Amino acid sequence: MRISGVDLYAETAGAGEPVVVLHGGFCSLESLAPIAEALAAEYRVHAYERPGHGRSADIAGEYDYDRGVSDALAFLDAHGLADAHVVGYSDGAIIGLLLAMRRPERVRSLTAISANLDPLAYDQDPEVNGPILPPLPPLPPLPRGPRVDGATGAGAEEDRVSPERAAYERLSPDGAAHADAVWEKCVRLWTTEPHIDPADLAGVAVPTLVLAGDRDTVRPLHTLRIAAALPNARLGLVPGTTHGLVDEKPELVTALVRDFLAEVARR
């Protein structure tokens, strides 16, 4: 469908209250398929792939979260949705937070999975993470079972991006060789944005579920900071998972999202 002058791949399934699913950076909708498919049994699920992701062709220039918010609003308008429940992962969760801050009347509820407020969140900067707790070391990596290619342990975790690269190479209309260009633009985005003041989250009154992995690259202290700044938040740390929690424990993450939506839906 045509969004903000660009053709974007989109999917719609199910019936009921509207839910909009926002994928992460260097991801496709396939990464959130377990959640989207489960929700489609009870809700009308709308999803699209941002420029340069999945089956949507890339655009000239850099990525930024402001465009992500504008595209989300245009997507809602294109489907005639005055508002919707928003489920976002990583970059999609950041877009969801910004959308709820700037246009709260368009968001019924927000699920923010592995969001961050600032690039410094990855470095446990105390001014970003807040004075709630003193700086804490990350939990040690969990031992991992063998991958298909035989790799194990922490080294296998470092290669977690490989499934997404494989998906990009399979799905992208720009061809497999363009994956590096998209990855580099994503890295530039992640290292320069966002810059969200936790105090600004006080105005987000919609019910919000804040989820992350207990070994997420977005450290638990930062995730706690986000939830503490929101006036109507629920917080969940998924045990034994990293930033890839949706892929690592899809049944548990999906159950948490479904339970939250069952609580806040208007039915």
Automatic annotation (TrEMBL):
SUPFAM superfamilies: alpha/beta-Hydrolases. GO terms for molecular function: peroxidase activity. Residues 132-144 have a biased composition (Pro residues). Keywords: Oxidoreductase, Peroxidase. Residues 18-250 form the AB hydrolase-1 domain. Residues 157-166 have a biased composition (Basic and acidic residues). Transmembrane segments: none annotated. Gene3D superfamilies: alpha/beta hydrolase. Pfam families: Abhydrolase_1 (PF00561). InterPro entries: AB_hydrolase, AB_hydrolase_1, AB_hydrolase_fold, Epox_hydrolase-like. Residues 126-166 are annotated as: Disordered. Coiled coil: none annotated. This is AB hydrolase-1 domain-containing protein. It comes from Leucobacter chromiiresistens.
